[in-house]
Description:
The structure is a homodimer of 225-residue chains.
Chain A: H1 2-13, H2 16-33, H3 39-62, H4 68-92, E1 93-94, H5 96-120, H6 134-141, H7 143-163, E2 169-170, H8 171-181, H9 183-224
Parallel strand pairs in A: 1-2
Helix pairs in contact in A: 2-3, 2-4, 4-5, 4-7, 5-9, 7-9, 8-9
Organism (chain A): Davidia involucrata (Dove tree)
Catalytic activity (chain A): a CDP-1,2-diacyl-sn-glycerol + myo-inositol = a 1,2-diacyl-sn-glycero-3-phospho-(1D-myo-inositol) + CMP + H(+)
Keywords (chain A): Lipid biosynthesis, Lipid metabolism, Magnesium, Manganese, Membrane, Metal-binding, Phospholipid biosynthesis, Phospholipid metabolism, Transferase, Transmembrane, Transmembrane helix
Amino acid sequence: MANKSRLTKLAVYLYIPNIIGYMRILMNIIAFSICFSDKRLFSILYFISFVCDALDGWFARKLNQVSTFGAILDMVTDRISTACLLVILSQVYRPGFAFLSLLALDIASHWLQMYSTFLVGKVSHKDVKDSTNWLFKAYYGNRIFMGYCCVACEVLYIILFLLAKNQTENITDVLMNAAKQSSLLSTLLALLLFGWAIKQTVNVIQMKTAADACVLYDINKKQKA
Amino acid sequence: MANKSRLTKLAVYLYIPNIIGYMRILMNIIAFSICFSDKRLFSILYFISFVCDALDGWFARKLNQVSTFGAILDMVTDRISTASLLVILSQVYRPGLIFLSLLALDIASHWLQMYSTFLVGKASHKDVKDSTNWLFKAYYGNRIFMCYCCVACEVLYIILFLLAKNQTENLTDVSLNAAKQSLLLSILLALLLFGWAIKQAVNVIQMKTAADACVLYDINRRQKP
Lengths: 225, 225
């Protein structure tokens, strides 16, 4: 019995989607250690890691290798890679505080949402059938729209990093200059900024909704007792 | 009934410990927006916020105002303030990747531990009665030792930030110079490094233990039907 458990535990760690997860972590480690010396390679590695993020979920379902550990591995890798990207952006842009705030918002909103998901007993923070906020429903109800907002966010951050030539660039200056250079680039940036703005707004609403859920959890507990 | 719920929700948000929590957030926002221009004020604000971290738990129990929301508010504020401190350290020290790694370890270990706590049904990640690792038991079993390690970590980061005079200091140079200057400072740094090392080791073990718990959760679920 003990041997069977240990073998099965290793088997879960060696699920194909989880191995893809480990590769994602490795790619991120390499990417961020060379991010300043080789921006192009950094972007390529980060992009591949992002693609794997979508792939490992697909593989998990195809190969019947869905695991709780895999889902958490995915979530934590996402959070840390986004955090690291925001950290290096806060180094090359002024005001750095803007990116620090985005980092705080990302961590706080996802943490609160995950906690409240557990308290309420939902499977994933993406299941919001009973949420009343219209933007929430539009965002989580339409997977393609949600995909666009998430991708827009990451691509915007990567482009901002690639645009920065020196340390301590002013972010508005860089954006304005880039927009003036090419009509294509300004259209792209506008699209990315729109998706990014939606995602950050959803993050803020997520925090409020999740906080309410935590408070109601206590209130309901007291009323039952 | 609806009015009573809404009133009680606001009441929870206005619990004294939670108001202390909001003040902590405000102090952190102010602290990190002036951290480069006024290091002394930054340290004072950060320290006060740290003291409030201990106080709000005490108030919650004294005033019978313990809340799930308050506990999460506390946890998330801790994570973000530590993350922000590591971000500014990664800006002033080379190699910045070290502090980026510590940030990743902090987020990953706490996230995994929180998730596994929910899956296993424990009240808090500090309840580890059935954990077999000796360091784990020593750490979580002895509140004073645990407190020393947590405080040592934060104080070490603050001191490192105060010691840095320019951008891109080399971490080992600064530490060695500081140690040479004063015997008292070297003893303090040694004590802090010891506590910090224990905490990071526990973080790593926490990740492994929590990952195992997540894997076992899936295995047990499959064996039950």
